[in-house]
């Protein structure tokens, strides 16, 4: 393989439809994400971002079409994926009666990591995320940003191939969000992970993703934008306008 060869596909949607009772959430959605890519998925509320996310996670099957992750069906082989994918949600979803350390350990327990590794890995990841010394704090004793740091530590500690974020930085103040996004990108890159970040924030998508997929209601791919590394503000402003046009449910196809 040459350096310019396309990434090996890790996530592939082919003509995916998802129909909920009374709602057609995704219509004919096809896209691919390659190994080691960091891709953002943007779109207005209700365009099907979380549905896409849940399909990747295998929480439910598509109504039609095919979803493949690492060549496997994530719904049919849910257990196979436990160690391979990790998730960071908008709210940190920590167990309130467990400390930061215990929350990170619990993630590894569910992923089937050997017990003797839990403590060391949890401490290491909490420290990498700037929480050394706060291992024994309970979620209510931490700020929103720190809780999300625990949630990131929990995800990375599993050492997954794929890391998925659904609006993970959206509820944070902009300063905290910026810092965490930057750290997130560094950790994804350093670990050679594949990252998928679902967000309604264009700034977030432009900061995070080298490639942006734009979904438009009713659930299809409206555009796909590459963000060249180190783009200057003018280029980013142009890309932003293009994303807004593509996202707009009223816009021309
Ligand atoms: N379990 C469900 N039952 C019925 N409708 C749903 C369900 N989940 C999502 N939807 C609908 O599907 C559409 C897409 O939802 P979602 O994927 O959550 O959008 P987004 O995350 O982009 O805001 C929305 O109109 C939503 O109301
Ligand atoms: Mg959503």
Q: Can you describe this structure in just a few lines?
A:
By secondary structure, the protein is α/β, with parallel strands linked by helices.
Order the strands across the largest sheet as they lie in space. 5-6-7-3-8-9
> What is the N-to-C order of secondary-structure elements (H for helix, E for strand)?
EEEHEEHHHEHEHEEH
Bound molecules: adenosine-5'-diphosphate, magnesium ion
CATH architecture identity of the largest domain = 3-Layer(aba) Sandwich
Number of strands: 9
Helix tally equals 7
CATH superfamily of the largest domain, by name, is: P-loop containing nucleotide triphosphate hydrolases
Query: Rg, please?
Result: 18 Å
Oligomer: single chain
Keywords:
alpha/beta, Rossmann fold, six-stranded mixed sheet, three-stranded antiparallel sheet, 7 helices, 253 residues, binds adenosine-5'-diphosphate
Structural features, described:
The structure is a single chain. It is globular and about 50 Å long. The chain has a 6-stranded mixed sheet, sandwiched between helices. The chain has 2 domains: 1-84 and 160-253, 3-Layer(aba) Sandwich (Rossmann fold); 95-158, no CATH class. Helices cover 35% and strands 25% of the residues. Helix 5 links the parallel strand 6 and strand 7 (194-199). The chain has 253 residues and is an alpha/beta fold. The longest helix has 17 residues, at 174-190. Residues 20, 23, 25, 43, 45-51 line the site of adenosine-5'-diphosphate (ADP). Residues 11-242 form the ABC transporter domain.
């Amino acid at each position: 393989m040459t350096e310019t060869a396309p990434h090996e596909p890790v996530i592939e949607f082919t003509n995916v439809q998802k129909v909920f009772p009374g709602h057609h959430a995704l219509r004919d959605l096809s896209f691919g994400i390659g190994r080691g890519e960091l891709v953002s998925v943007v779109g207005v509320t209700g365009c099907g971002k979380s549905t896409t996310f849940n399909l990747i996670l295998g929480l439910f099957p598509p109504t039609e079409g095919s979803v493949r992750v690492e060549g496997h069906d994530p719904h049919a082989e849910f257990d196979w994926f436990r160690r391979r994918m990790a998730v960071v949600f908008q709210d940190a979803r920590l167990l309130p009666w467990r400390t930061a350390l215990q929350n990170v350990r619990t993630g590894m327990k569910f992923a089937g990591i050997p017990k003797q590794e839990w403590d060391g890995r949890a401490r290491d990841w909490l420290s990498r995320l700037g929480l050394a010394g706060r291992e024994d704090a309970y979620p209510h004793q931490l700020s929103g940003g720190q809780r999300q740091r625990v949630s990131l530590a929990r995800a990375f500690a599993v050492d997954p191939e794929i890391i998925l974020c659904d609006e993970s930085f959206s509820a944070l103040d902009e300063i905290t969000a910026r810092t965490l996004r930057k750290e997130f990108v560094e950790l994804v890159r350093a670990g050679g992970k594949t990252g998928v970040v679902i967000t309604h924030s264009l700034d977030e998508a432009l900061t995070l993703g080298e490639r942006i997929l734009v979904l438009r209601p009713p659930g299809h791919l409206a555009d796909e934008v590459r963000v060249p590394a180190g783009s200057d503000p003018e280029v980013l402003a142009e890309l932003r306008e293009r994303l807004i046009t593509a996202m707009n449910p009223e816009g021309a196809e």
